[in-house]
Amino acid sequence: MKQLDLQGQPVALFEHAPQQQTDRAPWLLIHGAGHDHAVWDDIAAGLAAGGARVFVPDLPGHGGSAGAPLADIDTIAAWVLALGDALGLDRIRLCGHSMGSLVALAAAGKAPDRIEGLALVGCSVPMPVSPFLLDAAHNEPERAFALINKFSFAPADVLGEARRADLEAANLQRMQQQGARVLASDLAACDTWQDGLAAAARVRCATLLICGELDRMTPADAVKPLSDSLEKAGCSARIIVLAGAGHAMMQEAPHALVDALRGPN
C-alpha cells in the first residue's frame, strides 16, 4: 500500500505492477458500497499477470482512506478523476462494481476523452435501494449487513453450503470494518443518482457490461437500457453474463471476471 494526499485527506492506494507491461492505459478499480479495495485483490492480480498496471483505491471514508464518505455519485466520480490527475494518468481504464459501476459511468461521462475503456460490473441505472434496507442501514446495521449478504451471492445449491458461508463471513467482516455510517451513505448515493443514461450518452469508449447470471441485486436483464443508451451514443457495448454468479462476482467467479476484463475491451 502507498498513501498520497488528495483534497487534503490521505488516500490508501494499492498498485499492482506487471512484470511485463502492455501499452494499454492502466486500470483503476472502484469498489462498491460498504466495501474497500480488498474486494478486487484477485482481479487486480489477474489483470497484472496479463500485463496491465492496476490501481485500486479505498474511497474516502473506506478502508485506509481518511475523511467522511462522499455523499453522491457525481462527487465520488470527480474524486476518482482527481485521483487519476494525482497519479499522472492521462488515460485510464475504469472498472467499477455496483456503486462503483455508477461512479465509473459518471466519471466516463464527465471525461469521455480520457477514458480508454470502461467495465461496469453488477450495474443497473437507476440503482434503487429498498426503503427497508436504507432504514436498516441507519437504525439496524446488523440487519442491513445480513440482508446484503442474503442477496449478494448465488444460492448455496450453486456455490455449495461451505463456500457460501465463507463468502458471507468475509463480506460481513468487510462491511463491519467500514461501519454502518459508511454503508448508509453509500446506499443513499446509489438510490438518489438518476443520471446514468445521461452519462452513458456522453461515453465514447468501448464498454463491458458484466452481469451475474443469478444476480438478484442488479439482474442481467436490467442492463439492457444502459446498453441501448451506450450503443446509441456510438459506443461498442458488450454484455457478458457470468454463469452461476450472483452480485459479488469478484469473489464468486474471479477467473471468469478476469477473463472478461482481459478480453477485447
From TrEMBL:
It comes from Thauera propionica. Pfam families: Abhydrolase_6. PANTHER family: HYDROLASE ALPHA/BETA FOLD FAMILY, PIMELOYL-[ACYL-CARRIER PROTEIN] METHYL ESTER ESTERASE. Keywords: Hydrolase. Residues 28-260 form the AB hydrolase-1 domain. GO terms for molecular function: hydrolase activity. This is Alpha/beta hydrolase. Gene3D superfamilies: alpha/beta hydrolase. The keyword Hydrolase applies. InterPro entries: AB_hydrolase_1, AB_hydrolase_fold, Carboxylesterase_BioH, Epox_hydrolase-like.
